[in-house]
Amino acid sequence: MEVRREKILEVLKQVKDPELQRDLVSLGMIREVEVLPEGRVKVVVALTTGGCPLKRKIAEDVRQAVLSVPGVSEVEVELAVMTPEERARIFGAKPKKEHLGIRDVRFVLAVASGKGGVGKSTVAVNLAVALQLKGFKAGLMDADLYGPNVPLLMGFSEEERPEVREGKIQPLVRHGVKVMSFAFLAPPGQPFIWRGPLVGKALREMAEVVEWGPLDFLLVDLPPGTGDAPLSVCQVYQPKGALMVTTPQELSVADVRRCAKMFEDLGVPVLGLIENMAYLKVEGQEIPVFGEGGGSKLSRELRVPLLARIPLIPAINQKREPVALEKDSEAQGLFLDLAEKVIKAVFEHEAAKAAS
Q1: d(CA 4, CA 35)
Q2: Confidence label for 50 from pLDDT (cuts 50, 70 and 90)
Q3: CA distance to 144, 200, 258, 278, 289, per residue, from 247 (Å)
Q4: What is the DSSP letter of 326?
Q5: b/e map 202-229, b = 16+ CB within 10 Å
Q6: pTM for the complete prediction?
Q7: Could you tell me the domains of the chain?
């Protein structure tokens, strides 16, 4: 029985992308269908991202659908990755010309707290590493001019500086993650003593001159509070969502509540909460050093998921590298699980937008 390419495309219209809930053909994900002798068929599927967490399911769904066509004896599914132009047709136009540095970034996510000292930068650093370990291209922007801690947490020395090529700043790379921080632009130990308008101007310029290149996720580590820096990031970088970091005590929860309201007013959805320093584990027991229940209470109040409860991890203060790199450790497991939940939250939100 002759196998026709048209019939194969017809059955592939029934196969949907698990996150976007649209068929692969209309999304342009079926790049090639080749009918070979003896009923063999080769299908090339272009994934929206190389680190797609459900790529095996997509490949198997395609294989089973094509096998259902009479006359097909064998199916080979080859996975490729969409170009930025192909992704733009699905997710919308590229950023405006003045923001060329982030034109190939798929998802910008803000990491915020509203309050200092809750371990927000630590969470951002380890989440970025975990996303990279999951197969995604990740970047990390340290948007805190007054307390830029990302370089220290990532293990950079004070002497390391980014390269400038043709007027564009090339982010430094550590553990596979592209990193940019205002700390790289100042002499060691020299503070930025700038008023608010200068902070906003600097962040806008960074969106233009830092050449991030193709990224799946760019995490922007915001400074505490609801001032000029978060406002500029939301206006210029247009994050797809925000991740809120809190500790269990009410003081931190109150500040996060105000910060979440800021994102609501700016039209940035809060995708989830992360409760850091949730407990200290001693001999198998969880001791709530800073109280308990704050994250769960706020999660219910804001109607957003509590994505993770991260304990106090002594290794964070003992090493100048992310604990998410410690192979098979509890800390790595926690951040890999958090990365999975963040990925799911982002894709579900995008799917809901596409369906509306």
Answers
A1: 7
A2: low
A3: 20, 28, 15, 6, 10
A4: S
A5: bbbebbbebbbbbbbbbbbbbbbbbebb
A6: 0.73
A7: 5-87 (3.30.300.130), 94-344 (3.40.50.300)
